[in-house]
Amino acid sequence: MSTLFEPLTVRGMTVSNRIAMSPMLMYMAAEDGVARDLHLVHYGARILGGVGLVMTEVTAVLPEGRISTSDLGLWSDEHIPGLARIVDFAHEHGAKMGLQLAHAGRKSKAQEQGVAPSAIAYEGLPVPRELTAPEIDDIVGAYAEAARRAVAAGFDCLELHVAHGYLLHEFLSPIANARTDEYGGSLENRSRIVLRIASEIRRIVPDSMPIFVRLSAEDVVDGGISLKESSWLASQLMAEGVDLFDVSTGNIVPGYEAPVYPGYQANYALDLKKELGVMTAAMGSISSPELAEYLVSSGAADLVFVGRALLRDPHWALGAARLAGADPHLAIPTYARATGPYERGF
Ligand SMILES: Cc1cc2nc3c(=O)[nH]c(=O)nc-3n(C[C@H](O)[C@H](O)[C@H](O)COP(=O)(O)O)c2cc1C
Questions:
Q1: How many domains does the chain have?
Q2: Is 333 part of a structural domain of the chain?
Q3: N or C: which end of the chain has fewer CB within 10 A?
Q4: Is ligand 1 within 6 A of the CB of residue 161?
Q5: Structural domain boundaries, residue 132
Q6: Ligand 1: distance of its center to the CA of 119 in Å?
């Protein structure tokens, strides 16, 4: 029996299996942030390839919140049709679509100087400009507006990117946040912007729409955030209506000092699940179907986010289904002609 190919319901969204495409920035949007045919084909290939949930790459809530000038954006209604086309395609072929909302903060290379909680540079990048409190209000508003547009585009769920050293993670981590106002200092203060955004988004999106949060559960560096702090934050986010945590680590500074091996971050997903009884997604170097099956069958996580394995092979999920003896959802039923032994002929 394969749990990997069992459906999962999160609020009003039911995914057909437990395989999610991990958000991966392709650096292929035009400078206006609009999705191109190329995005439809790129995501469409994974949709036809049997992934239950496709999460978009980082999608910037403001132009200055882009990692690069080739990021997707959702700061204008003009971004809606290009994204809606991909969502419609997913729905037509049995997949669900999530959108990852992001602001790159001090790691933005879209302009000469990024913005951040404090004027502390990410090594190798310019010193960012410290955000004022009214500017923080504007950013909260930009997230809410982008969420409204994502709903208009038909997305099934949203993910807030609170990991990998981008703006919301910068607020959380004392490594990047030295503020002395209500957004800095105590964990409660450092969490304030994230909690405000989650609360605003929950107010705007339909009740049935799940909200995921991607966390860097630990900074894996001296003076950074700990799992205990992330667990507290997750409990507060749950109270604001967040449904699932997609658990990563690190990247507040360049380099990653801890060991990396298949499924190396899954223990964090399990810890959050055990402590809070919340749904989690495991991610990071999950590239074998057997490991993916183990993680969801053992209860470490409800979903697996698969990244690079899906870049290598858009049909990774169909291969995993065959291995598990599960009946894969074939958007193109004729693909079944390719599953028999080769000597049978066509
Ligand atoms: C090319 C590339 C782009 C990525 N872009 C994003 C992104 O937009 N948002 C994000 O949260 N993570 C991003 N990541 C991280 C992946 O989502 C994933 O968590 C990471 O690659 C580890 O999973 P994997 O070993 O299955 O690839 C990116 C990774 C790669 C390789």
A1: 1
A2: no
A3: C
A4: yes
A5: 8-326
A6: 27
Ligand 1 site, residue 265, Cβ cutoff 6 A: no
For residue 99 the two structure tokens come to 């959108």
Per residue in 162-185, pLDDT (tens digit) is 999 999 999 999 999 999 999 999
The first and second tokens of residue 214, run together, are 């991607």
Give the CATH number of the domain where residue 208 resides.
3.20.20.70
How far does residue 283's CA lie from ligand 1's centre (Å)? 9
Distance CA 92, CA 41 (A): 14
Lowest-confidence region among 174-178, 231-235, 259-263, 282-286: 259-263
Q: Examine residue 339 and state whether it is found in any structural domain, yes or no.
A: no
In whole angstroms, give the CA distance from residue 171 to residue 117.
Answer: 6
Protein residue whose Cα sits closest to atom 14 of ligand 1: 24
Examine the pLDDT at 148 and tell me if it is beyond 90: yes
177 belongs to a structural domain: yes
CA of 69 from ligand 1 middle (Å) equals: 18
Segments in the chain forming alpha helices (H): 37-48, 80-92, 133-153, 167-172, 187-190, 192-204, 227-239, 266-276, 289-297, 308-312, 316-324
